[in-house]
Amino acid sequence: RSHCHRFVTYSCLRPRSQEMRLLRPLLACHAVSALQSSAAPRRLTRRPANFLESFAEAFATPPLSAPRARPEAADELQRLVTDGWNGARVDADRCSQLIDALASMGGPFDASDLGGGLWLALHSRGPVPKWQKNQELLKVFGVRNRAGQTYFPKDKRVENYGEVVGGLVTFGAEGTFALPAGPLRAPCDLPVEIAAGGLTVFGKRFDLPIAGPGLVRVLYHDSTMRIFESPLTSQDKWEESGLIVVQVRESAVINS
Asked: Does 249 have pLDDT greater than 60?
């Protein structure tokens, strides 16, 4: 009886030993795989602690497309003409090179960038305009006469402004302009219609016979600097054909 018991026990254990020998390689492979997966770093997703943190993270997500980078030539030109306004000597040849480089680039711009207050005319190339002669009239006495333009994109209005004796004697002209259809991209032309103009002396305005069509060609435009060209001579010859003007937003000049 004991012999039979030993035989039965041996018969029952023997197949299990064979199974273990067959499973041993599989178990070894599974152990190696488990070690490799545990050694690999796992990316953990952190959950926001509260609603405010989740809201902040949502708005901190970077945009799908990066904004258009400003050309280095624009940074250099704005610096040169702004330094010139502050009394430094202007390298006209270098400014001319930068103007041509930016005009060849062109590029898109927003109509809203046309506005934003007065844009100062800080540099010109070509026939010297009358407003620049007035601007330099009292320069030897340390008076910096401002000249520039203010565009109102929503109302399609434009105002030209020039100082003769600081703010005591100023020249102004008002009119309207039109935007081309579709997205704006330089170079592009803006038709202008001047309705009235006058000379203001100590707060009293004297109307002048200034009226008629005009044209402004945008060669380059960004949020703080633009380059305009006058393809046509104005009726009052305030500006002549071929004039190129670099304008900088007044707030950028003051904060420079």
From this structure: yes
